[in-house]
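ARCHIVE CARD
CATEGORY: sequence design from structure
SOURCE FIELD: tokenized fold
FIELD CONTENT:
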């Protein structure tokens, strides 16, 4: 992999879109994430745009007025005249980088007035649109890449040997469900399903142990032909960018159904995504070393080992999960942070997960979504799900209203947030991933 820093990362550059210059803005000119939006009026169609401050630059509008007609950006701009990011994703890294550099040039404060005037007509307020899923996701795969999460969860079931013997060799994952991926803000209906309390008879009822999972997702750009693999050194070039993922999980359904084939209906009812995809280019300044394995741990097998991936395949990305109950909302309480972790603590890098996925010749396709698994760290404050945080409900958490939570209740809103910051660079954010639990509809 190659981490390239260029003028688009210069921390001193500001935008003529004033809201992008606020110190805590998620979308300064150094970020420029892609998404798909739809204006509120009924006739509006989904369009590809780029977030800048509290605005969206309508790339479809720009393209159709001939404002992105230069030879160098034409290919990427034409791909943006779509209702999803899949065409842009399928172009791979080069055209995306060129488009980013062009957008940076026209949005920076010192852009010529004539350009500012013509571009300004294609800015839309984020408050005036609905955000849709950024891509048509053909396949969604969820990994289990945090050794802290795997150990904490394993301990609940196998106190003496929490990690299974394959963990340090195989990036563990399962095939998720793409049809129930939801854009942030979509309510989540509590699932019903089979569960079993101890030795009692199994029953079908609304899930009692509903949980969130704080995760990072990454989208495939160019894929690989069936029967061929993706070498670890090239894996990053097959990744478009990242978003936040909440892999909602019904723990009571999961613990009864998961043996011997793994998660099924405990996960497939809903998975929420943040709607802006932060590109690998925007993340370049925040790449860091891969997780430092313990001395006694095995080295990754050769197809998962690359010197450059070990040196800079990690990502210094802070992640936070908060909850706001219905009562907290009614009484004006702010959401309460339940966990805060960092993506650099993952045992496997994104490149290792992607290379592993394709290593058997499975064809990945543009727009496929791979998610990391719950991001947890070593501390009690860095647990990415309630299963870990409450030790399967044994130690409930107390909310600011005095309410207790073992698992999620109807009306609870879960909010994921993520951001990168590093000395000498502009902070960039992922936006948020939100979902509120509605009562079960099937009882
Ligand atoms: Mn998960």
């Amino acid at each position: 992999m190659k981490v390239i820093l260029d003028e688009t990362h210069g921390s001193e550059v500001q935008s003529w879109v004033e809201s992008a210059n606020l110190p805590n803005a998620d979308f300064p000119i150094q970020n420029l994430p892609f998404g798909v939006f739809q204006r509120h009026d009924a006739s509006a169609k989904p369009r590809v745009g780029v977030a800048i401050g509290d605005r969206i630059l309508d790339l479809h509008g720009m393209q159709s007025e001939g404002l992105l007609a230069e030879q160098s950006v034409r290919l990427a701009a034409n791909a943006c005249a779509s209702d999803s990011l899949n065409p842009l994703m399928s172009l791979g890294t080069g055209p995306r980088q060129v488009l980013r550099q062009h957008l940076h040039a026209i949005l920076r404060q010192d852009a010529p007035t004539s350009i500012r005037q013509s571009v300004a007509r294609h800015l839309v307020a984020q408050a005036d649109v609905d955000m849709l899923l950024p891509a048509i996701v053909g396949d969604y795969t969820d990994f289990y890449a945090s050794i802290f999460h795997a150990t904490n969860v394993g301990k609940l079931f196998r106190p003496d040997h929490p990690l299974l013997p394959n963990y340090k060799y195989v990036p563990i994952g399962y095939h998720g469900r793409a049809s129930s991926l939801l854009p942030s803000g979509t309510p989540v209906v509590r699932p019903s399903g089979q569960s079993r309390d101890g030795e009692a008879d199994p029953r079908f009822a609304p899930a009692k142990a509903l949980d969130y999972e704080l995760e990072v997702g990454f989208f495939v750009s160019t894929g690989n032909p069936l029967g061929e693999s993706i070498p670890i050194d090239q894996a990053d070039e097959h990744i478009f960018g990242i978003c936040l993922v909440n892999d909602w999980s019904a723990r009571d359904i999961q613990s009864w159904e998961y043996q011997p084939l793994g998660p099924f209906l405990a996960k497939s009812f809903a998975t929420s995504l943040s709607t802006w995809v932060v590109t690998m280019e925007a993340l370049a300044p925040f790449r860091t070393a891969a997780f430092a394995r313990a001395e006694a741990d095995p080295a990754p097998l050769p197809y998962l080992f690359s010197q450059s991936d070990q040196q800079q395949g990690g990502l210094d990305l802070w992640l936070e999960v908060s909850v706001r109950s219905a009562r907290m909302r009614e009484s004006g309480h702010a959401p309460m942070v339940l966990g805060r972790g960092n993506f650099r603590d993952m045992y496997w890098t994104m490149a290792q997960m992607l290379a592993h996925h394709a290593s058997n010749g499975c064809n990945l396709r543009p727009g496929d979504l791979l998610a990391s698994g719950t991001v947890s760290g070593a501390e009690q404050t860095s647990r990415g799900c309630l299963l870990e945080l409450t030790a399967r409900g044994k130690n409930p958490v107390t909310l600011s209203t005095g309410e207790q939570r073992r698992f999620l209740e109807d009306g609870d809103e879960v909010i994921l947030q993520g951001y990168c910051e590093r000395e000498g660079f502009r902070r960039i954010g992922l936006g948020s991933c939100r979902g509120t639990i509605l009562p079960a509809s099937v009882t």
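CARD ANNOTATION: The chain is about 20% helix and 25% strand. The pocket of manganese (II) ion is lined by residues 142, 213, 215, 247, 373-374 (CB under 6 Å).
SHELF: design records, drawer C
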